[in-house]
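Write out structure tokens for TonB-dependent receptor.
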Amino acid sequence: MVRQFFLCALAAVAAELLPVGHSYAQAPDTVQLAPVTVSAPRYTRYAAGARVQAVDTLLLQRQPGITLADVLQQRSPLYLKSNGNGMLATVAFRGTSSSHTAVLWNGFNIALPTLGMSDFALLPPSANTQVSLQHGPSGALHGSGAVGGAVLLENPVSFAPQQRVQVQQELGSFGQRRTAATGSFANGRLALSSSFTRTASDNDFRYRNTTAFGSPRETLQNAAFHQNSFAQEIHYKISQAQRLSVRGWYVKTHRQIQPSMGSANTHAQQDDENLRLMSEWQGRLAGGTTTVRAAYFKDRLDYRNNASLATVDSLSFSTVGTYQSQVEHERTLLPNLMLQLGAEGQLFKAHVSGYGGKVEEQRFSTYAWLRYDPLPTLQLSLNVRQAWVQGFNPPLTPTLGTNLSLWQDQGNSLTLKANVSRSYRVPTLNDRFWRPGGNPALKPEGGWGYEGGLQHQYRSGSLTGSTELTGYALQVKDWIQWQRSTEGNYSEPVNLQKVRGHGLELDSRWHYQMEETWILSGGAAYAYTISQQKLPNAQAQLQARQLFYVPKHKMAAWAEVRYKSWWLTTDATFTGRRFTDNDNNHWLPAYPLVNAGLGKTFTWRSFETQLLAQVLNASNTIYQTLAYRAMPPRNFRLSVSLRWAAPQP
């Protein structure tokens, strides 16, 4: 299947690069960046009162092949936990765990059914991907796992005539290298896009070993990786009322598993292979818009250690096939009333060495989303989902949200937002079937989230900006956590009684253009997070303890100055202290990170060349996101890209 997929994709790429018989006007002096289709995703329309933030797509266009882990580290207040550069990387919203974050790719949840989470180091989105972050529970919209929040990956369709090609080469410290190529074609009826990236690194940097006497500097061993990613989209407009789309995304990664400080190097290695295929038909039917989707995912993970020796101490493999289907119908009932009804089904087929055999599971859910605007200044959304899972009985998950415009004039608007939502998470396959330790009797998690906030938007001449302040409270019942078993030397999952959290989130983004040559833009995002469970102290008294690896303070800020064809960009993050145990007796210190880049664009006819020099961790901070996992010191990257766009008639 993979071979056939690549053959079809290569044929599509060739078709894109072939000249098309059109006459064009005289070529312009400059080449513009690919247009970004700005449209409200289907979720946003029904998410009144919720905090939804779009991530700057310019970052993906300038650095094709960059992973979601790097994107979210630079542009969000989410805490990124990483086992090392290029190693396992996870994110979490509002003090929840990584398995409480749903990741959706064009409507389908792509989290691993075995782990219930996504490795963001294995997700290099294509350059035309729109990345959005929905904070807070959203079970009615996204189903199981959307307890803390959701990361939404959308690839919008545009049939506007175009032909574009871009290639890029990047080199950096510690053997960092990336090659990327993208192409797109559209003629009003057919739209094609392709992207390929290969990223590799030796990761042989010097680090300070804090577990050894005197904290000597050592060279990191067994941390190299390489990753290939290929994405292909084919869209065909059957008629003005019908569209057919096919998408594919294939990622293959080989990683040496970076050992923790003070532990023996077992030469562990891991191979990941992720194939995602989906098709979509959309058309006008029964007075509304009907969408039918089908998808097949194949996720393979092979792990081994002592691979360089004659004998293999440990070998673990996992292959999961996921079959998914969705049908939705959206209809405008009144000029101010919109309804969407849908149903989806999932089938998991897992062959995992840790299970001792094959496991299958079926899931099904139906949902209804309602959007009602009774007044020009008032928006309401009411959503509900009911799921049926083999062996479980998930709760009904409603969501009610509202946006109320408090004040609006020519340059300012102030909106009050409020939302209450229920969520759930079904135990993963590992939670139930891993041997030893799996517990088929686990209960599904259930949670409630409450939030309210104010959003201010400003526009005056060349200055535009948006600021949003949100306060929230969150509680999760029957939280699933793995802990050491009392019956043997292994871990097992248990249902905690209840975890509570609350916090504040602040996000502000501004853009200012001076005359035609200077452009200033920037933003900042801050999260104050309290996430606690009650644990007994030495006197057997229950006391609130911050969950481990949940920083109370996290901040990200970024700024860019553009002058003609030059630009200077910088971003900085601050991560507060994080406890590394449930008793809050040990912690990792707070740390800042600063990155900077300088770029220059050269144009000639239909070609554009871009040079970009970057310094990462400019402050040379010694830090860890997970205990005893070394992270890179100051390092440098240099890239050059060439773009070509056919002039439009």
